[in-house]
Design goal:
By secondary structure, this protein is mainly alpha-helical. The protein has a domain of about 100 residues: V-type ATP synthase subunit C fold (Up-down Bundle). The chain contains 19 helices and no strands. The longest helix has 27 residues.
Length: about 350
């Protein structure tokens, strides 16, 4: 991540950054591109990407890697480049908003390292999945990769925003032997820090108000995802322990009650301000009872919601955050296609793994 810092008292350069973001958004893959890719072998996928805006990364890495490895390294390097560009372009409060939000990749990287240690994965496999677009320095990331245990990872993060909640969750992890408490602690620390220090009731159409609305929506969707996972798991877990403060859809008590009854949870969401946006996803959940499909529908709904906000408020942080989500979706989809095709999955099977709007 860029080392430059912004100060909220300085003027933000929204018009310039959003013009650059609109140009980048126009280059994103569309659903037709994904439908072409799912019918290609890994070599064809690599050649296809060489003809796109991934050309620089594919050429730079092509002498060292091939197949899925080449695709994955190119995806991660390209993602980090684009998000570093966002910070390089931005000034004032806009810089601060983006820098806060991109810490989500620190969360991704810590989860990836922890999962690797939990499953005894090879270091190279773990490193392949890292996205160096957050606030952590390269040195910190290397130290995490070199950690010999999950406890060591927790200790290394003691001086970060994740320190306290992760230390508490580690005790629960040791008792339960499952990663959910650690992963949820990372999410909670990220989102609650993201919203801290922002006004409680900013003007709705102000830059800060729009930023808060976007973040509150993402917290709501995260709490909904967690509640559904608990409802499906049947595990004897207190849902309020996995509640993330800052959203508008539920409070901790409502989550605890609704996560024990899937029908009531679905009804509550239908009656909320997200009911229309999630109508199709909720119907799919009721009919198929398939949590994975619902989570993909939830991702698609968040993308569409972000798009609507960015179109309604074109000179705000919303188009930037919408682009971040869309770029993430592109990288996740291409990665899923490359991995699926290498594993021998057919086009229809791979397409089911994608988030398509």
């Amino acid at each position: 991540m860029s080392s430059r810092t912004g100060t909220s008292g300085q003027g933000s350069n929204y018009e310039y950054v959003i013009a650059r973001v609109r140009a980048r958004s126009a280059a994103l893959f569309d659903d037709d591109d994904y439908r072409k890719l799912v019918r290609m072998g890994t070599g064809e996928i690599a050649r296809f990407m060489e003809e796109t805006e991934y050309e620089t990364e594919m050429n730079a890495l092509g002498s060292r890697y091939d197949g899925v490895d080449l695709v994955e390294y190119a995806l991660n390097r390209n993602l980090a480049k684009h998000f570093d560009d966002l910070l390089r372009w931005s000034e004032g409060a806009l810089y601060d908003y983006i820098a806060r939000y991109l810490r989500k990749f620190d969360v991704w990287n810590v989860k990836t390292v922890i999962r690797g240690l939990y499953s005894d994965a090879e270091r190279t496999e773990v490193e392949d999945d890292l996205i160096r677009a957050g606030e952590f320095t390269d040195r910190r990331v290397e130290d995490l990769l070199n950690a010999g245990s999950i406890e060591e990872v927790v200790e290394q993060l003691d001086d970060t925003i994740f320190g306290d909640t992760l230390a508490e969750a580690f005790d629960v992890y040791e008792e339960s032997g499952v990663l959910v408490p650690l992963e949820n602690a990372l999410d909670r620390a990220f989102y609650e820090t993201l919203l801290s220090g922002l006004p409680d009731n900013p003007e709705v159409d102000s830059p800060t108000g729009l930023y808060v609305e976007f973040l509150e929506t993402e917290v709501d969707f995260r709490n909904l995802r967690n509640a559904l996972r608990l409802a499906h798991s049947g595990a004897d877990i207190d849902p309020s322990e996995y509640f993330i403060e800052g959203g508008q859809l539920f409070d901790a008590q409502e989550v605890a009650q609704l996560s024990t009854n899937l029908d009531q949870l679905v009804s509550a969401v239908r009656e909320s301000k997200y009911g229309e946006d999630l109508n199709q996803a909720l119907s799919a959940l009721e009919e198929a009872d398939n949590l994975i499909d619902f989570e993909r529908a939830l991702d698609a709904a968040l993308l569409e919601y972000a798009d609507r906000l960015s179109n309604r408020y074109p000179l705000s942080v919303c188009p930037v955050l919408s682009y971040v989500l869309a770029k993430e979706r592109e990288v996740d989809n291409i990665r899923a296609i490359a991995r699926g095709r290498e594993a021998g999955l057919g086009p229809d099977e791979v397409e089911q793994e994608l988030v398509i709007l």
